[in-house]
Specification:
By secondary structure, the chain is mainly α. The chain has one domain. It is built from eight helices and no strands. α2 packs across α3. The longest helix is centred in the first third of the chain and has 21 residues, at 23-43. The termini are far apart.
């Protein structure tokens, strides 16, 4: 009887462990979001740049410069979003991106001061690119200082 009970408990434990999403599964969600951004950009590059501009309050010419300095259009979005969350200017975010792009956005975010597991880190990983102004928008003057609505309280 003890053996059967032990086997049932081990099986239940195993099933519980299988139901917990792995870090790679959660990272897969971000990867999927990034892939969808690149597909969107490839379908209509002008509209994608306009959407970045409108969402982050950065003029299109600055969006063009940013896109020319990153590997993919989605990386431009991630730079803008990470800069907005970390309240860091574009040059700092780009420097961190170039130094650590092979290590992933989690490392870049951490180096920018976004603590792993924090609300801000989850906001970045969630990959939330809604139309219109992002929450915590920039000033609209082309600088990603994150002092828009909802910031600086």
């Amino acid at each position: 009887m003890k053996k059967i009970f032990s086997m049932v408990m081990l099986s239940a434990l195993f099933l519980c462990l299988l139901s917990i999403p792995s870090p790679s599964a959660r990272a897969g969600e971000l990867d999927s979001f990034i892939q969808s951004l690149n597909i969107e950009a490839n379908a209509d590059f002008g509209a994608f740049k306009a959407r970045l501009s409108a969402s982050f309050g950065v003029p299109v010419p600055e969006i063009n410069v940013l896109i020319s300095n990153v590997e993919t259009p989605a990386d431009a979005y991630m730079c803008l979003k990470a800069g907005q969350i970390a309240k860091q200017p574009a040059d700092i975010v780009l420097r961190e991106y170039k130094a650590n792009k092979g290590k992933g956005w989690g490392v870049i975010a951490k180096n920018l001061g976004i603590k792993p597991g924090s609300k801000e880190f989850h906001e970045l990983k969630r990959g939330d690119f809604a139309g219109g102004k992002e929450s915590g928008e920039s000033t609209g003057k082309g600088k990603m200082n994150g002092k828009g609505k909802g910031r600086g309280k």
